[in-house]
């Protein structure tokens, strides 16, 4: 008889090691989120070694909490310490990845874990009873997504994303009408309105908080070519004004909609015959087995269950989910009426696909 114990044991040991490591990394993400939100990471970046008391005084925080946070970051091998002087420092190469000193601040993304974990009981109820978790249960989500957009969209907007559609920059400089659906806090629109004063920009979003923030920023910047409106886009297929815009954009804005098919049909309806629909959405497959190699697959499915899918279901919607995938995205775009669809990826962004669509 063949004894399979030895064959199975290494795989079992490896899986156990992965789970233990995941538990440890989960703690690191919580600590990193706290370090980002309290300003501790920024306060340590580029600075010489400092004691917990001095760091607490610098940041206006309680020393006992600062000291425990430092202990966790030392255990995670992020912060270094000198036991002789009871001092701590954040090495420059790590600060470049955890603060605004580098090209991308990865501490921004650590916020997703505690944010989504706060609705676990709500999601558990949905597993048992159905339905979804409404947007109102995520008071900070728009803020976190604006920080995310600030690192994926804004740095590449003018040099990488808009040039994906040949001639689009020139049209924006000459003056066209632009709509951003599910615009959130509207940071992309704010940047474009400032860069292209001859064009007119409109942003729609369901969140009153996000639109209020965007309007305040536009007023503060003196942008008169930009308008934001609180709008439910679940009936956009019938309420969109035909031929109203030469350019429509969505940045990670389709997969959590209650009625994504209707929104896409409305976008097609709202475009002029020579218009362009520019889409940024999650890079994934529509087939689970093809997501095994996705570098952020498990994370993005967790985001889907804890936010994107469930907020759609809370509206009685389709519950498309974060990982709807390129295949389904192409099918939905074709169903909406788009015939010329090109898909791109940008080197700086492993998380998203970019679709350039024409009627």
Automatic annotation (TrEMBL):
Signal peptide coordinates: none
One biological process term in Gene Ontology: methylation
Residue ranges occupied by any Methyltransferase domain in the UniProt entry: 173-286
Transmembrane segments: none
Name used for this protein in its record: Class I SAM-dependent methyltransferase
Span of domain S-adenosylmethionine-dependent methyltransferase Rv2258c-like winged HTH: 28-99
A Gene Ontology molecular function term of the record: methyltransferase activity
Its EC number(s): 2.1.1.-
PANTHER family: METHYLTRANSFERASE TYPE 11, S-ADENOSYLMETHIONINE-DEPENDENT METHYLTRANSFERASE RV2258C
Keyword ATP-binding: no
Keywords: Methyltransferase, Transferase
InterPro entries per record: Methyltranfer_dom, SAM-binding_MTase, SAM-dependent_MTases_sf, WH_DNA-bd_sf, WHD_Rv2258c
Leading EC class: transferase
């Amino acid at each position: 008889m063949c004894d399979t114990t030895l064959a199975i044991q290494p795989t079992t040991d490896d899986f156990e090691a992965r789970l233990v490591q995941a538990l440890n990394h989960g703690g690191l993400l919580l600590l990193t989120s706290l370090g980002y939100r309290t300003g501790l990471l920024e306060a340590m970046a580029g600075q010489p070694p400092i004691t917990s008391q001095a760091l607490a005084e610098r940041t206006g925080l309680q020393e006992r909490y600062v000291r425990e946070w430092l202990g966790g970051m030392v255990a995670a091998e992020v912060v270094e310490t000198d036991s002789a002087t009871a001092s701590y420092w954040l090495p420059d190469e790590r600060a470049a990845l955890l603060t605004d000193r580098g090209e991308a601040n990865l501490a921004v993304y650590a916020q997703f874990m505690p944010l989504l974990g706060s609705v676990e009981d709500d999601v558990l109820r949905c597993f048992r009873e159905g339905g979804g978790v409404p947007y109102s249960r995520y008071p900070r989500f728009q803020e976190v997504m604006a920080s995310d957009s600030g690192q994926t969209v804004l740095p590449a907007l003018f040099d990488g994303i808009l040039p994906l559609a040949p001639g689009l920059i020139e049209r924006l400089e000459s003056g066209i009408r632009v709509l951003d659906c599910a615009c959130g806090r509207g940071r992309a629109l704010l940047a474009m309105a400032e860069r292209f004063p001859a064009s007119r920009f409109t942003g729609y979003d369901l969140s009153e908080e996000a639109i209020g923030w965007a309007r305040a920023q536009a007023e503060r910047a003196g942008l008169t070519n930009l308008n934001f409106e609180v709008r439910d886009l679940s009936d956009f297929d019938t309420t969109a004004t035909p031929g109203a815009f030469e350019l429509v954009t969505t940045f990670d804005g389709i997969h959590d909609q209650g009625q994504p098919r209707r929104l896409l049909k409305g976008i097609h309806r709202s475009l002029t015959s020579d218009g362009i629909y520019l889409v940024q959405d999650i890079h994934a497959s529509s087939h689970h087995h093809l997501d095994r190699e996705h570098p952020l697959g498990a994370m993005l499915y967790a985001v889907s269950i804890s936010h994107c899918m469930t907020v759609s279901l809370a509206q009685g919607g389709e519950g498309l989910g974060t990982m709807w995938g390129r295949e389904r995205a192409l099918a939905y775009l074709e169903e909406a009426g788009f015939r010329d669809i090109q898909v791109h990826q940008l080197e700086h962004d492993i998380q998203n696909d970019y679709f350039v669509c024409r009627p």
